[in-house]
Amino acid sequence: MYNILIADDETTEREVIRFLLKKDGFPFEVREASNGKNAWELLEKEKFDILFTDIRMPFYDGLELAGRARRLYPDIQIIFFSGYDDFTYVKEALSLHVVNYILKPVNPEEFRATITQVLHSLEEQSALSRNHILYQLINGGSPSVDFSFLRTYHRLLLLQFQRDFWGKEEPDESLGLRQILPQDCDLVNLNPAQSLILFSGQRHHHQWYQQLAGDLTKRLWQKYHIKCFAEISEPFQTPEEIPAAFEKAELLLTERLFFTPNPPESRKSLSVLPENDSNDDMIYRQLQTDIQLKDAEGLIRHMDILLATYKNAKNYSHIYVRFLCTNLLKTLCDGLAGRSEDSFDEYARAIYNLNHFSEIEALLTRLTRRLADILEQEQASPQHAIQLVKQFIRQHYSEDLSLDILSAQIHLTPRYLSALFIKEMGCGINKYIKRVRMKKAMELLLQTNLKVNEIARQVGYTNLSYFCKSFLDDFEVTPEKFRADPGTARNQETLLHDLNI
Q1: Of residues 204 and 187, which shows the higher confidence score?
Q2: Best label site of 50, 106, 255, 483, fewest CB within 10 Å?
Q3: pLDDT above 70 (res 176)
Q4: pLDDT above 70: percentage of residues in the chain
């Protein structure tokens, strides 16, 4: 259940919002305030997930209230609704990162779409928060926030996939796992190839969990032809026991993965976003990624999709569509920052003065093409290509990093990338990858108490013996001896030189 605060000095307007929330069955605990001052007093006393506020109110107006709320609760979802279609208000709303600016009288479809978007964001925040707490706990940390929600769990099931899986397929419901899993359990994806199922509620015999694990792995194989290893923990009573249960289950799985006669096939990097995905939010995020990766073609394609969607948004008010377009404008101007003299304020005001969507579309398209031309020129730089490859290696060193995978990331042939990398860096890609992994291994040996086999896994080696041999070849000392006396390692300066850092 989420908490929403409705702030408006008109009783009728508050009643309309209450009615729409109830009519659509949204799961909210609703509180009301008749002015900005009363709303702020409520915010100081209790935490709200959503602030739904009018702009013009006695004492504190909606802008001041929203600013205070944002400072008090950085993650609060803010929605403005107002009878004033004013550019100054909307510009201020953008600076406060509000979800939407809805014009009165409230359009029910626009309202439903906005609340649905907010709910999705809240659920994502909740999942990320719970996962973060769990990550801290199973990695030996002490969460600084309340983790009492973990007290309901009494056993865990660890799943290790044969290759990176989450992200390629839609999790949970589309996998059909919920048809097998009991209702009183939670599925948490620790990384693209590893998941954790936490059980609460009724306790069963060990054989029951073994049967469930067998059904899960069988279904995954039947539907996706992916091999999955599963390990059941012993029962535990408190959240503090979860790390030990997880470590034991992971160790048993690690031994099976390292020493099985037919080791799992290499992990592969996956593209998450489908080519023709029509989800506006996903495409908007992909557009931001296009700018970051200097993908001019992707930028143009995704902008065209979004503009076509907004153009056909017949059921939404003009203020809603202009608000969306102003968000797109901000993304483009952020991308152009430092690359041209284009001013967000100038173009944003233009959007609010244009009368037809076709004029707004032409303005955004013109800016998109300008940014795409700049990105295309920058992408052609060999230094940029190498920087992208180095960045990808440093972010994915724990995964399989073949030349084919790396060349696909920057749309170059493997042979050309190999020659270009040697020319720019003075060493081959495989050698660079190994150096990155070895540097990370040295850091983990010195800064953590992780076992050597766990460090090997974290830096991309599925075979412990091969990792130890590679470490010995590079530094003329075993990982254990290096941890005991770092000064015995050789060639550390060479490693840093090869990494060009």
Answers
A1: 204
A2: 255
A3: no
A4: 77
pLDDT surpassing 90 at residue 113 = no
228 touches 162 (CB < 8 A): yes
Check residue 223 and give its pLDDT.
79
Element (H, E) at 196: strand 194-199
Phi, psi of 305 (to 5 degrees): -65, -45
Distance set, CA 37 to CA 43, 48, 51, 439 (Å): 10, 16, 14, 56
Which residue carries 């503090």 as its tokens?
A: 240
Residue type, 369: R
CB count within 10 Å of CB 414 equals 15
111, 164, 436, 461, 500 from 395: Cα distances, Å = 39, 15, 10, 15, 16
User: Which amino acid belongs to residue 25?
Assistant: G
Residues paired with 102 in a beta bridge: 81
User: Tokens 């002015």, residue?
Assistant: 35
- Span between the terminal Cα atoms of the chain, in Å: 49
The tens digit of pLDDT for each residue in 404-462 reads 888 888 777 788 788 888 888 888 898 899 989 998 998 899 888 899 999 999 999 98
By C-alpha distance, which of 406, 389, 174 is closest to 269? 406
Q: State yes or no: pLDDT of 227 exceeds 50.
A: yes
Name the average pLDDT for the chain.
Answer: 79
Pairing of strands 50-54, 100-103: unpaired
The pLDDT value given to residue 497: 56
On the 0-12 / 13-18 / 19+ scale of CB atoms within 10 A, 456 is: buried
For residue 3, give the H/E element and its range.
Answer: strand 2-7
Whether 271 shows a pLDDT value over 80: the answer reads no
Q: At what angle do helices 62-72 and 36-45 cross, to 10 degrees?
A: 10
Which H helix or E strand runs over 174?
none
Q: Which residues of 173-192 are buried (b: 16+ CB within 10 A; e: fewer)?
A: eebebeeebeeebbbbbbbb
Angle between helices 280-292 and 318-336 (to 10 degrees): 20
- Contacts with 359 (C-beta within 8 Å, 6 or more apart), sequence order: none
Asked if 84 and 56 count as a contact pair (C-beta separation under 8 A), the reply is: yes
Angle (CA) 201 207 212, round 5°: 65
Rounded CA Rg of the chain: 27
